[in-house]
């Protein structure tokens, strides 16, 4: 592990680290915010999964989350959104390949060699983080858009592993919308039955655990009707009796200005669960 | 004036506007944050001057200032750092030409045609802002690095025009350091006597008004000794009896992580003066 950046920030440190990922078969970077409370002892970790086109930089430079993490004593970990490097296969367009890993384990060539973001985010990265930073075992997960999908799916697929989950503008039903159908067709193949285990609405229907979902969605989001469709999650949660707090925010769009405006609420939500 | 961007943000709106500047002879963009309080009546304006290489985007996406502006009811205006466009002369290097206007009025060819950032920031832009947005007459000014120099110089040169001033990591003595000497040599020519009216330390010595200066400086700033040298400002203020609060912040560097950590203090400082 190599430290790439280190900046004092709200009494703690915002760092960027690089390491060789065995799961992904390439060098990866992630951001980690260490709040001032790490001087006193281990802190819980909130993982953040970013959206299409993002790297590890977007959340750490634009969300303003460090202020709230410093208030509550949470470590923030923000990975990249796909495998990277010259020998990693890519595609034309922003919504497939690099920057668009969709937090699945690809089964189809040529993607299956590197695109295993689920296992990276759930297994390899937390093991690395726990080995190098003063963490407790309490983990939460959140994310935006493709990363909101990632957070919901990761939490629902791995009951007991996360104590809290939330999402901004998530793709709640990737099997039903163009972004998800394009990515799943490439990464998972044409048998759409296999897609269902990567779709938050499908997972809610079969969930045994009842981890409450907090979702913020801007009503002026330019992708609302075509790609996001939060009413599908609302219907799935109602049908399954799964707890959901869906907050529709009038006037807000898909940008980091939206995330910045409500990330404080989300970090408070995670802190309540992680510090119990 | 053309609106380029508009995003809901902390109950207000973050916008970007483009207009033809007569002073600079080119199209210019600026960011404006309108807090929720503009719905109730006019609000004071805090101008923010950015540093080398920045556009109107850096401050509005990275500083996290909107949260505090929304709390205090301040409008934030963030201009670009130089004239722009294909027919504006540029130079090799990040510290001269585009992105490096230094908030002076250039007197030397070929710079004097477009590089008049002082008059743009002090005269043209506020007139435009006051004509288009619900402003009071109360103005403050702040900035970072080259823009910290700009904020101090603009406030000291124009007594009575700003009610409050602050700076992060300012170039306090541009006539004495490499960045300033390179820029002033190009923009103002070889007669160094003319440089003095654009140097905060020189201006403090001759200042008739006593506007208090708030300055934050990171002690781990990579440019501290070579380009910033805040002790020169401290000495000049002590000699002149000019009020200065210089805060040296241990561990902080020159980045926006530093600005984000203390912008709340600065906005509170300005709000106290602007809402009197």
From TrEMBL, chains A, B:
<dbReference type="GO" id="GO:0018738">
    <property type="term" value="F:S-formylglutathione hydrolase activity"/>
</dbReference>
<dbReference type="InterPro" id="IPR029058">
    <property type="entry name" value="AB_hydrolase_fold"/>
</dbReference>
<keyword id="KW-0378">Hydrolase</keyword>
<dbReference type="GO" id="GO:0052689">
    <property type="term" value="F:carboxylic ester hydrolase activity"/>
</dbReference>
<feature type="active site" description="Charge relay system">
    <location>
        <position position="221"/>
    </location>
</feature>
<keyword id="KW-0719">Serine esterase</keyword>
<dbReference type="GO" id="GO:0046294">
    <property type="term" value="P:formaldehyde catabolic process"/>
</dbReference>
<dbReference type="InterPro" id="IPR000801">
    <property type="entry name" value="Esterase-like"/>
</dbReference>
<dbReference type="Pfam" id="PF00756">
    <property type="entry name" value="Esterase"/>
</dbReference>
<feature type="active site" description="Charge relay system">
    <location>
        <position position="145"/>
    </location>
</feature>
<dbReference type="InterPro" id="IPR014186">
    <property type="entry name" value="S-formylglutathione_hydrol"/>
</dbReference>
<feature type="active site" description="Charge relay system">
    <location>
        <position position="254"/>
    </location>
</feature>
<comment type="function">
    <text>Serine hydrolase involved in the detoxification of formaldehyde.</text>
</comment>
<dbReference type="GO" id="GO:0005829">
    <property type="term" value="C:cytosol"/>
</dbReference>
<comment type="similarity">
    <text>Belongs to the esterase D family.</text>
</comment>
<protein>
    <recommendedName>
        <fullName>S-formylglutathione hydrolase</fullName>
        <ecNumber>3.1.2.12</ecNumber>
    </recommendedName>
</protein>
């Amino acid at each position: 592990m190599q430290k790439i950046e280190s900046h004092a920030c709200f009494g703690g440190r915002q760092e960027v680290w690089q390491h060789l990922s065995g799961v992904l078969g390439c060098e990866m970077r992630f951001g980690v915010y260490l709040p001032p409370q790490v001087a006193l002892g281990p802190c819980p970790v909130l993982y953040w999964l970013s959206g299409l086109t993002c790297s590890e930089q977007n959340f750490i430079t634009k969300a303003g989350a460090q202020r709230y993490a410093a208030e509550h004593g949470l470590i923030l970990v923000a990975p990249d959104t796909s495998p990277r490097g010259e020998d990693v296969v890519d595609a034309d367009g922003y919504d497939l390949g690099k920057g668009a890993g969709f937090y699945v384990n690809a089964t189809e060539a040529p993607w299956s060699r590197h695109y295993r973001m689920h296992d990276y985010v759930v297994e390899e990265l937390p093991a690395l983080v726990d080995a190098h930073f003063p963490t407790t075992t309490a983990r939460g997960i959140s994310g935006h858009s493709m990363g909101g999908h990632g957070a919901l799916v990761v939490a629902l697929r791995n009951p007991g592993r996360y104590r809290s989950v939330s999402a901004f503008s998530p793709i709640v039903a990737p099997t039903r919308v163009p972004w998800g159908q394009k990515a799943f067709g490439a990464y998972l193949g044409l048998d759409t039955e296999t897609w269902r285990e990567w779709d938050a609405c499908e997972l809610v229907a079969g969930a045994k655990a009842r981890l409450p979902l907090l979702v913020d969605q801007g009503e002026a989001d330019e992708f609302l009707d075509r790609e996001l469709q939060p009413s599908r999650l609302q219907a799935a949660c109602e049908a399954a009796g799964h707890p959901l707090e869906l907050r529709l925010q009038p006037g807000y769009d898909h940008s980091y200005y939206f995330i910045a405006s409500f990330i404080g609420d989300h970090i408070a939500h995670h802190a309540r669960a992680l510090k119990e």
